[in-house]
Amino acid sequence: MSITAVTGSASGIGAAVCKQLQEAGHTVLGIDRQNADIIADLSTVEGRINAANQVKALSNNKLDGLVCCAGLGVTAPSASLVISVNYFGTTELISLLQDTLKQGENPAITIIGSVAAVQQIAEPHAMTELMLENKEEAARTMADELGQPHIAYAASKYALTVHARRLAVQIGKTGIRLNTVAPGAVETPLHEASKNDPRFGEAVRNFIAPIGRNGEPNEIADAVNFLQSSKASFIHGSVLYVDGGMDAMMRNGKL
Hints:
Layout: E1 3-7, H1 12-23, E2 27-32, E3 38-39, H2 45-58, E4 65-68, H3 79-102, E5 108-112, H4 126-132, H5 136-146, H6 149-171, E6 177-183, H7 189-195, H8 201-206, H9 217-227, E7 239-242, H10 246-250
Parallel strand pairs: 1-2, 1-4, 2-3, 4-5, 5-6, 6-7
Helix pairs in contact: 1-9, 2-3, 3-5, 3-6, 4-5, 4-6
């Protein structure tokens, strides 16, 4: 029986992923700040180490899958917190669990990125490079000085996607597959908070995919479930847009 750890398991996409993986026969170890098998705060180094140690203990150091769903949006208390959770909370947890995943059966990692990452492609913000250089404090300082959480969010998801593709090249020979799912607007508590935010709410509400609606958590979980399965055995280092056409709209149909 496969053992898969899922961050951000308590709500939204993470909860939908847990449900689908359990139905597919996985033993799921949910990680969140509350209402989870493993209670941990991924915004801190200590929290990431705590989460990894608990996963190792509960899986007997043999983990078959990791799905990183935990993330914060524009309504987070600070832009620096977005950086710490979205980027470092994922990349460091993967690093801490990499050896444990190597012991698993056909191990796979799926990261929940975002279509917002493509906003950084033309000219990535300077904090992106700080994240990729593993300079958390410097990236946090720059994010708070800028004071624009929407830029911190897009930068964190862009850096996360770049990191994932670089790491996929490095770890392919170890037997671990690594892919990223990039959702568009999805009806989650996080998105609901963004729609009600006085600063960004109108823009969020008006940002509708060409398909004419927002996504549902189960639609993202469908993609994750597939990528974590043997049916995706030759998919590695890819970014799968599950966004109702938002990426095509934002980049005007260009690659």
